Amino acid sequence: MSQSGIKVAESTEKCEGLQDELMAFDASKTGVKGLVDAGIDNIPKIFIRPADEVAEELNYGHSNLQVPFIDLNGIEEDDQRRKIISEVKNASKDWGFFQIVNHGIPQTVLDSMLDGVCRFHEQDAEEKKKFYSREPLKKMKYYSNIDPFRKRAIWRDTFTISMMTSCDIEPDELPMVCRNSAFEYINEVTNLGKTLFEVLSEALGLKREYLEVMECGKGRTFTCHYYPACPQPELTLGTNKHTDPSFLTILLQDQIGGLQVLRDNQWIDVPPRPGSFVINIGDNLQMVSNDEFKSAWHRVLTNKVGPRISVACFLAGVMNPAKVYGPIKVLTSEENPPIYKDFTVNEHLAKFYSKPIGRVANTNALPMMWIWGSHAFPFTKQRELDLWRESTWNMDLLTDSIDPRIQEWTRDNKTICLYGGDDINWIRRFTTTVRGIATTLHVPLEMIYVGKRNSKDRVRRCHEIIDTEKLSHIFPLKDFYDYIWFFWVRLGSMWNSKLQHGMTVETDKIMQEIMAMLTYDGSEQGWAVFSRGLYEMTKGKDDILITVFDNFNQWGHRVDHPDKFVPELDKEISGVHPEHHCNRLILPGHGNIPERVVCSECGRTMDKFVMYRCCTD
Ligand SMILES: O=C(O)CCC(=O)C(=O)O
Ligand SMILES: [Fe+2]
C-alpha cells in the first residue's frame, strides 16, 4: 500500500472505441441479466479483458491453502472469547480475510436475503429500470457494474442499499420484492458488525468498545450482487482485483463460489460454507491499525453456472459531517511511527475510485461523478477539462440533480431563490419580504433553503421552523443534512477540480462564483442566489439583500415582466457598496490548500489562518 493508503492495480491496454458501446449498454438499463435473457452466445466486446490483463492474471499461482475459519460459539464466555480474539487477530494480521460461523444470525434470515436479492434482479425489467441510477443521494439504486470509473464492463449487476450518510432506513424505502427480508438482514448484520468491532478492538489490544466509539461501524452500504451465468467466462475472467475502501466488509455468498483472496501471490478460493459469512479487513482498518491488520486483494471469477448472488455490507465510517481518521495513537510509537496520513472517508473513497485500472488515471473521478454525474464518463483529465469548457455558471451546474424539484422549476422558467445561513430571524424576514414582492410583481418564484455546512443542529431547527411556518421549500426533513452535505461537497469538489487544472479566482469566472458561495457559507450571515430558469443569476448577502428589498419601491416599477425581476435585482445589488466587508473562505485542512487566494469581491489577497475546531455546531 502506498502512503496514501491506496493499492493500485495497473493495466496498460487502451480501449478506444469501446466507450460508445459501454454507454449504450448503460443506457439500456437492463444490465448483464438483460443480455443473458436475450440469449447471447458470445459476450460483447466491452466485457472482454485485454490481453495484458489476462497475462497478468495468469502470472499468479493458485494454492489450496484454507482461509481461516472461526467459530464464534461461546463468544461471551471468557476462555472461548480469548481463543476467538486470538484467532481473529492472527487472521486479520496474516490474511485480512476469514470466515465465521455461529454468529447468531438465523439461517432463515440469510436464505431470505439471498432470495430477496435474486427476486430483485429477476423481476420485470421495466420495474427494475426505475431504480437504475448512480446518484449519490439515492438510498436505493441498481446499476450494471460497468464500473463507471473503469473501462471494462464487469459481468455482474448490482443493487445497493446505501446508508453512507444517514443512519437509518425505513422498510417502506426498500423495494417491495425484498422489503421484509432486507430490513431484517440489515438490522442483524448491523449488530454483527458491532460484535466484530468489539473483537477486533480487543485483538488490537484496545478497549472492547474502541472501534465502535471511533464510529467505524457507521456509513453502511449493502451491495447486492447478481453474477449471471456466463457463456465465455475465460474471456472476461471476473471482477478486477481490489481491496475494499471500508473498515470492515461482511459478505454473504450463495453456494456457487468464485470469490478468491490473494496471499503471497497465490489466489486462494474462499469456498461457500453454508451458514457462514466472509469477513474482510478494509483499507480504513489497515490504516487506523497502522498496518497491524491487512486489507487483502480479492476478486470474483466469472462462472459458466449461475446466477451467483452475494451481499457485501461495507462498514465505511462516518462520512457526514466529515470525520478525520488516522493511525490510532496507542498503536504507534517511536519504533513504530504512523505509516499513514490522516484521512476522511470521502477522501479515501475518491482515491479508491481513481485507481488507474486503465493507463490514464484521474484522481478526480469521484468528484467528477458528483459534479457531472454519468456525463463525466470516461473520467479522464481531458474529459474534466472539456466539461469545464462546456460549463457555464447556472442553476444546473450549481444544483445538478440534487433535488428534482429544482430541475422542474428551471425547465418551467421559474424564478428560483436558493438561500442559506442559520439565523432564523433573518430567514423569516427575508423569505416573507421576498415572497410578498414576488406576489406584487406576479413573478413565479420558488424559494428553497440550502442551510449551512457544519451547523447541523441550528440548521435542523431552521428547517423545522421553515416547514411549520411554511416560509419556503426545504429539502426532505428526514434526510435534510444529506442534501445539504451533498450541495456543499459538490461545490468543494468544483473548487478542487478547478484548482487542480491551474485555474484561479483571478482568471476564472466560475471559480469566482464558487468562491463567493463558499465564502457566504463561511460567514455568519444569510445569503441568497436568484436565477431565472437557466438564464440570469444574481446573488447577495444579508444586509445588501435587505437594503435592496427595503428599497423595492424605487426599482419595482421597472419589473414590468416577470423575466425582468432577476436582471433588475442584479442591477440593484451591484449598486449597493457596503462600507466594509470581510470575506472568509473556509477549506478543509486536509485537502488541497492553495498558496494564494484573492477575494472574489475586492480582489485583495486574503490572509491565511489555521483554525482547529472540535465540533460541527
Ligand atoms: O461478490 C463477492 O463475493 C465479493 C464482492 C466484492 O468483493 C465487493 O463487492 O467488493
Ligand atoms: Fe470487495
CATH topology of the largest domain: Jelly Rolls
- CATH architecture term of the largest domain: Sandwich
**Proportion of residues in β-strands:** 5-15%
Individual helix count: 22
Ends apart, CA distance between termini: 36 Å
Q: Indicate how many domains the architecture comprises.
A: 2
- Arrangement of strands in the largest sheet: 2-3-10-7-12-6-5-4
- The helix content is 25-40%
Q: Please outline the major beta sheet.
A: 8 strands, mixed
Bound molecules: 2-oxoglutaric acid, fe (ii) ion
Poorly predicted ranges: 1-15, 356-360
Protein name: SIEVE ELEMENT OCCLUSION B-like
Family: Belongs to the iron/ascorbate-dependent oxidoreductase family.
InterPro entries: DIOX_N, IPNS-like_FE2OG_OXY, IPNS-like_sf, Oxoglu/Fe-dep_dioxygenase_dom, SEO_C, SEOA
Organism: Olea europaea subsp. europaea
Q: What would you note in describing this structure?
A:
- The protein has 22 helices and 18 strands.
- It has 617 residues and is α+β, with helices and mostly antiparallel strands.
- It folds into 2 domains: 3-26 and 63-358, B-lactam Antibiotic, Isopenicillin N Synthase, Chain (Jelly Rolls), CATH 2.60.120; 391-574.
- Strands 2-3-10-7-12-6-5-4 form an 8-stranded mixed sheet. It has a 4-stranded mixed sheet with strand order 1-9-8-11, with no helix packed on it.
- Strand 2 (69-71), helix 4 (78-94) and strand 3 (97-101) form a beta-alpha-beta unit.
- The radius of gyration is 26 Å and the shape is globular.
- The protein binds 2-oxoglutaric acid and fe (ii) ion.
- 2-oxoglutaric acid binds at residues 223, 225, 244, 251, 253, 259, 298, 300, 310, 312.
- Fe (ii) ion binds at residues 242, 244, 298.
- This is SIEVE ELEMENT OCCLUSION B-like.
- Keywords: Iron, Metal-binding, Oxidoreductase, Vitamin C.
